[in-house]
Specification:
Blueprint lengths: L1 H16 L2 E4 L2 H8 L9 H25 L4 E4 L2 H18 L6 H20 L1 H5 L4 H19 L1 H6 L2 H11 L2 H19 L26 H25 L8 H8 L40 H11 L12
Parallel strand pairs: 1-2
Length: 321
């Protein structure tokens, strides 16, 4: 009970201390980017429009970077993030097109650098969000950025200053764990509706044993609540241990709670493509949607730390993330 009371106190403090949140939407993105041409438009017009869309989105990201502050959290929606990542990928491919003139290829390189730099600058802001879904989404953003800067082509396109800035923004290990803990506190506080109860509309608190059927018997509901509470307790213990470098990933418990597909937690032949240790395997992985902690403590986090340690002192800050 004492542990429960402490968590409730912490979660209340998190909610009271949360700054204002600005949530972007796909509609906002489309309004600021204009409308794609008709399908029968000539290739030149289509190319010009797509180039304009990329520039508008980049300008919007730069504006969001300027907006973020201690008093305002900017939460990027999935569509905006995915579109930005796709545009960066297209610019990287364009920069390698030998048929283009040098000016166009140079512009593609500049755009690629700008996208990576601005997306990395939004990581810290995303980690301050009290929403667990934003934390999970930011894991995927960081994995994608790591896949870019560690690929031979991506690294070649980045100047040393941009590369160092992205690496520094990715190497914030404590910030990452703090964000997860804060969001888990908020999600838990919202689920604890009564002193004895633990209910939530969030699938992440729904054990696999209850999926697809209503829990009509009180024993079933009580069992499911206890399962969810146990999962939350273990995740808090894992986060607190991981923050000091001694956490053991509770894979077996997560698989048992959420059920199949277990690949989301790194199990089986396809596990390495879902829970990312090697960033070259998962540059565009999808969110597990109704599961959490799929990427917590995976190898990609170590990769970010190692890249930071290898930065030359001339471009690496004196302080350690």
């Amino acid at each position: 009970k004492a542990e429960r009371a402490q968590l409730e106190l912490e979660s209340t403090q998190v909610l009271q201390a949360s700054p204002t949140v600005l949530v972007t939407t796909p509609e906002d993105l489309e309004a600021g980017m204009g409308i794609l041409p008709e399908t029968n438009a000539v290739n030149e017009e289509l190319a010009a429009n797509l180039d304009e869309l990329r520039k508008n989105l980049l300008a919007r990201l730069e504006n969001l970077v300027r907006l973020q502050s201690d008093q305002l959290i900017v939460e990027l929606d999935h569509y905006t993030l995915y579109t930005a990542q796709l545009n960066a990928e297209l610019l990287r491919i364009t920069s390698e097109n030998a048929e283009l003139d040098p000016v166009a290829r140079s512009a593609a390189v500049d755009g690629y650098r700008d996208y990576l730099r601005n997306l990395s600058q939004l990581i810290s802001n995303q980690r301050r969000s009290p929403e667990i879904r934003v934390q999970e989404q930011t894991d995927l953003l960081e994995i994608w950025l790591l896949s870019q800067i560690t690929s031979p082509i991506g690294r070649k396109l980045l100047d040393d200053a941009t590369y160092a800035e992205v690496v520094r923004n990715l190497a914030q290990t404590q910030q990452r764990w703090d964000g997860r803990r804060r969001a888990l506190l908020k999600a838990t506080q919202e689920a604890w509706t009564f002193d004895w109860d633990f209910t939530s509309t969030e699938p992440m608190f729904e054990p696999q044993s209850s999926k697809g059927r209503p829990s009509e018997h009180w024993i079933d509901r009580w069992t499911e609540r206890r399962q969810a509470e146990h999962l939350v307790k273990v995740l808090f213990q894992y986060i607190d241990a991981a923050k000091v470098g001694v956490g053991n990933y509770p894979r077996a418990l997560l698989v048992d709670f959420y059920g199949e597909p277990a690949e989301y937690f790194g199990v089986g032949v396809n596990g390495p493509y879902c829970r990312i240790d090697d960033v070259s395997l998962g540059p565009f992985i999808e969110s597990a949607r109704d599961r959490i902690a799929t990427q917590w403590g995976a190898g990609w986090e170590t990769t970010a730390e190692e890249l930071y340690k290898k930065l030359p002192r001339s471009i690496s800050p004196e302080t350690t993330p």
